[in-house]
Amino acid sequence: MLDKIKALHSEIESLNAADAAEVEVLRIKYLSKKGEINALFNDFRALGPDEKRAIGAPLNELKTFATEKINTLREALDNNGASEISIDMSRTAAPVALGTRHPLSLVRAEIIDIFSRLGFTLAEGPEIEDDWHVFGAMNFAADHPARDMQDTFFIQRTPDVLLRTHTSSVQSRVMENSKPPIRIICPGRVYRNEAISARAHCFFHQVEALYVDKNVSFADLRQTLLYFAREMFGPETQIRLRPSYFPFTEPSAEMDISCNLCGGKGCSFCKHTGWVEILGCGMVDPAVLEACGIDSKEYSGFALGMGVERITNLKYQVNDLRLFSENDTRFLDEFTSAHK
After folding, report:
1. How far is residue 336's CA from residue 331's CA, in Å, rounded to a whole number?
2. What totals of helices (H) and strands (E) does the chain contain, helices first?
3. According to the model, what pLDDT value does residue 176 have?
4. Which helix (H) or strand (E) holds 51?
């Protein structure tokens, strides 16, 4: 039996393994319950007292040696794996700063969340649109100034293909393909041919909402607007509606909120009026419903739309629209804590 122990010792001493799977095979072969060393312990139990005294110590030493050998092989493979992890020596030693969500994304998500609590679902559409969905279905007259080249980015004129000027085109597509009740919110980027300045840009972001059902009233619109304003700007926020005009709504209104900086007392931000305009709204014009295949005698609805940049300006007091698209990390870093 001593010869077997010596032979196994020499065999185990010369063991090598290419990967963890081979190490496990060796462990099972020598150290498992059905392994070779355990078989020697089974034979050891049948020996006499004198033989046990002579064999016991070498057998225990063999088991210890085999265990250490297997562990050594496993550790060597682990160390080799760690050394294979490449280090980019050209990488800066300075910590890599984590990014944050863009302020427009933060506000857009908050607007969507507020309206989702009222049952509005998300709807999206193409930014490259046709004249019908942008203007025709929205009751724009054929000679409306928005259809002029100086106001809208046309890709081609026959047929008219353009960059959408508002996300109302999403509303028209949904109304064409859905039956009331319709309750959607339409966020997205829109484009208008305007001079770029601190107050205007050739592209910006809108969020529009549409609700069409039986017996929808202006009172429903007002209460929706009040809920939105107080959720977005605080529970003390007041609103007022001023008559306005939009081709796709009748009656139409502009909505103001009490200035969130001075509490409605008057300051330079609100031009000492105590009010700040934030969106346009109104009851969906029956002509729009009919153009999209909805019976205006049975259904009514309201629509509203706002610029995300304007809401962001009010919420975070950003006074230059160009900052939102310049990718200046110094500006964007100011909103690191806003998304937490």
Report:
1. 10
2. 11, 10
3. 94
4. helix 49-83
Asked whether 256 and 239 are in contact (CB, 8 A), the reply is yes
Instruction: Using a cut of 0.85, tell me whether the model's pTM lies above it.
Output: no
pLDDT in tens, 163-189: 999 999 999 999 999 999 999 999 999
- Map tokens 């210890």 to a residue: 64
Class of domain 103-335: alpha beta
- Residues making up the annotated binding site are 250
As a whole number, mean pLDDT of residues 36-46 equals 80
CB 205 within 8 A of CB 104: yes
Residues at the binding site for Mg(2+) are 250
Task: Write the DSSP assignment of 298-321 as a string of letters.
Answer: T-EEEEEEEEHHHHHHHHH----G
298, burial (CB in 10 Å: exposed 0-12, middle 13-18, buried 19+): exposed
Using CA atoms, how far residue 174 sits from 102, 137, 141, in Å, is 28, 12, 21
- Which residues are registered as beta bridge partners of 154? 162
62, 8 in Cβ contact below 8 A? yes
User: Are 185 and 208 a contacting pair, CB within 8 Å?
Assistant: yes
Q: Which neighbouring-strand residues pair with 211? A: 183, 302
With beta carbons less than 8 A apart as the criterion, state whether 314 and 282 touch. no
For residues 7, 13, 18 and 24, what is the CA-based torsion angle, rounded to 10 degrees? 70
- Any idea where the domains of the chain sit in the sequence? 2-82, 103-335
Residue 228 one-letter amino acid: F
Strand pairing category for 182-191 and 121-122: parallel
Rounded Cα–Cα distance for residues 11 and 206 (Å): 76
Average pLDDT over residues 116-137: 94
Q: For 35-49, 70-84, 91-105, 225-239, which range has the lowest pLDDT when averaged over its residues? A: 70-84
> For residue range 1-40, what is the model confidence (pLDDT) as tens digits?
777 878 888 888 888 888 888 888 888 888 888 888 888 8
How many other C-beta atoms can be found within 10 angstroms of the C-beta atom of residue 285?
21
DSSP state of 184: E
Match 């300051």 to its residue by tokens. 267
